Amino acid sequence: MVKAVDQADFECRPGEIFGLLGLNGAGKTTTLRLLSTTLKPTSGTASVAGYDIVREPEKVKSKIGFLTGNTALYPRLTADEVITFFAKLQGMTDGNIEERKREVFELLGIDSFRDTKIDKLSTGMKQKVSIARTIIHNPPVLVLDEPTVGLDVITSRAIIELIKSAKQQGKTVIFSTHRMEEAAKLCDRIAIIHNGKIAATGTLAELQKQTGLSDLEDIFVKLAGE
Amino acid sequence: MQIRQIKNIYLKEMLDTLKDRRTLISMIIIPILIFPLLMFGLGSLVSSQVKKAQAREKTIAIYGEEFGPELTKRIFSQEGLVRVDIKRDSLAEFLHAKVIQAAVEFSPDFESRLSRGDTAGVEICYDETEVKSKFALGQIEQVIRQYEAELVEAKLKAVSLSKESISPIRVTPKNLASPEKMGGFFLAMFLPYMLMILCMTGAMYPAMDLTAGEKERGTLETLLVTPASRLDIASGKFLAVLTASFVTGVLGTASMTASSLMGFMTFDEASVETVSATLSISPLSIILVLVLIIPIACLFSSLLLALALMARSYKEAQSYISPLMIVVIFPAFASLMPGFEFQTSHTFIPIMNTSLVLKDVLLGTFEWERIGLVFLVNTVYAAVGIYLAKRMFEKESVLFRI
Question: How many C-beta neighbours within 10 Å does residue B197 have?
């Protein structure tokens, strides 16, 4: 039996950007799905924003903003309809929703295309709508699964901005990637995951000390190889 | 399970569904248009062809006219029948080429046999597959029968007998079927079948779009991360598919009923009775039809949802679902089979049981015990279907099928 995630054990703190670094098939997506309660662990548990993922999954979901690289929007609905739908699912009241939409749309510059159908939007615009969806309920935890994969430098910017501003607001951010430069630039702390196991955890400085190497890519190859 | 969440999801799925052109076409446009198109489009095409065939003149060849001069004269004094001369051996060729419509041949002993009191033979060559040819045959036969009737009457007079003496018995069939029964007959046969087929097709696109379609677009995972539970999500989607199924069924059968009413009025004046009888299908029957179709629509919706959820893409879902159509068509056919009597064992065969009961209801026969039992049995089946769909939504292997 293959263990997609084998005894992962790590901690992410508020105001911190935590990176889950690994190759394709390492178990990053599975780990994040476990944390966001879309998958159930066969053993063990985790606590997200104070709630246990096994015992109180619904509460966990209300505290998370989840984003993947695939924008995952409904092509026939307008940007406004999509955001309203997800806001309702998060249990926000109508008044709350309108106010928060005003805030978020202005922040992300969505107002000009809020009534356009999703399939008519450019990738960059779709990305913004996805981000809006992720933060509409102002969750304390952001779980981002390879959020910049397939995006060019310009369109990735919005995501990078989101991550940075979330940290500034004291939110907990965990995101997975296989791009070493991205992880090195953004993350406060990194966990290297390989074949389902966490090979090492720490700040970039700590990992450099541990391996005696300075480039994250070299560090990764060394630690993953062990 | 939260009603609020189910409502959120249901409303969004309905909004999304109504914005999908494919679903709109299959759910609203096709059921409304298909029957008028078939009835009037096809019907009027056929009848205009028939009228054309009737109107144009028909060319007839005659062989051995010297043996039947009187009849020959009568035939060509008919309006629209024109004489033409063709070599005997080219007859078949010209008939197939539609140059002539029929050929009449009198046997050489025609007149002599007639005067002797024996049966005299006349052969008419024609093409059964050509409308005009058949009309020509009909016209010629009519002339011959008229002539024959005159001959017979003259012979009877000669021996002081009347026409009645050779047809001593007059049979009068008397139909005691109630007007409702007569009028409802056509609809009673077709409506149950069409209703169930339509419920099935109405559920198909939404079921695929809301599951496999979502998987393809990657939106299913995003939905699963929201506080809405799997059960809420499954319920909201199920209700949306059920709505589409029901709407398609009802719209289609309403359209069919209206079309057939107008069809009767246009084509068959003698069926004015049928029209008023069809209109007199009681509201009770209509209500019962709607009520009885609900568990069937639930059964279709839940099974299609469960099946489509197993697929990775829209196309794959289509390949799972298409064979299901055949499974539905056969038992639904029961209402169309004349003389197919309801037996107790039929109560437990879904779709077939409903087809037969709906036929009875539309004919004005209300066997309450049977109706109640069929409703109950179908509800049980629907509950099983819903349970299966729910279980599908809980399986991670199904939801995250890569």
Answer: 18
- Tally of domains in chain A: 1
CA dihedral B318, B321, B322, B323 (to 10 degrees): 140
Distance CA B76, CA B85 (A): 13
Each residue's pLDDT tens digit, B85-117: 888 888 888 888 888 889 999 988 888 888 888
CATH number of the domain residue A50 falls in: 3.40.50.300
A104's CB contacts (< 8 A; 6+ apart) are A83, A110, A132, A135, A136
Tokens 């006349």, located at residue: B122
Q: Which of A73-77, B12-16, B176-180 has the lowest mean pLDDT?
A: B176-180
Distant-in-sequence, close-in-space partners of B314: CB < 8 Å, separation ≥ 6: B208, B209, B212, B213, B216
pLDDT at B267 over 60: no
The domain ranges of chain B are 3-33+178-399, 57-165
Structure confidence by residue, pLDDT tens digits, B374-397: 999 999 999 998 899 889 888 878
Within-domain flag for A4: no
Q: Which of A61, A74, A91 sits opposite B225 (nearest CB)?
A: A61
By the 8 A CB rule, do B362 and B188 touch?
yes
Task: List chain A residues with CB under 8 Å of B8.
Answer: 85, 88-89
**Residue spans of alpha helices (H) in A7-56:** 28-35
Q: How far is A141 from chain B (nearest CA, A)?
A: 13
Radius of gyration of chain B (CA): 31
Q: Does residue B275 have a pLDDT over 80?
A: no
Contact between B224 and A38 using a beta-carbon 8 Å cutoff? yes
Q: Which domain holds residue A151?
A: 16-71+139-224
ipTM over 0.90: no
Low-confidence ranges of chain A (pLDDT < 50): none
Give the span between the Cα atoms of A101 and A89, in whole angstroms: 14
Tokens read off for B398? 């199904």
Count of C-beta atoms within a 10 Å radius of residue B304 = 28
Closest CA in chain B for residue A143: B225
Contacts of B43 (CB under 8 A, 6+ apart): B263, B266, B267
Residue A155 lies in a domain: yes
Q: Which of A61, A70, A77 sits opposite B226 (nearest CB)?
A: A61
Residue A220 is assigned to a structural domain of this protein: yes
Can you tell me the mean pLDDT for B156-166?
A: 83
The three-state (H, E, C) secondary structure of B186-211, written as one string: HHHHHHHHHHHHHHHHHHHHHHHHHH
Of A72, A85, A91, the CB nearest to B227: A91
Closest CA to B296 of B180, B207, B205, B375: B375
Say if A55 is an interface residue toward chain B (CB within 8 Å).
no
Q: Which residue has the higher pLDDT, B223 or B48?
A: B223
Nearest by CB to residue A61, choosing from B217, B227, B396, is B227
Name the CATH superfamily housing domain B57-165.
Answer: abc type-2 transporter like domain (3.40.1710.10)
Is B361 in contact with B288 (CB distance < 8 Å)?
A: yes
- Cross-chain residue pair B225–A38, CB shorter than 8 Å: yes
> Does residue A180 lie within any of the structural domains?
yes
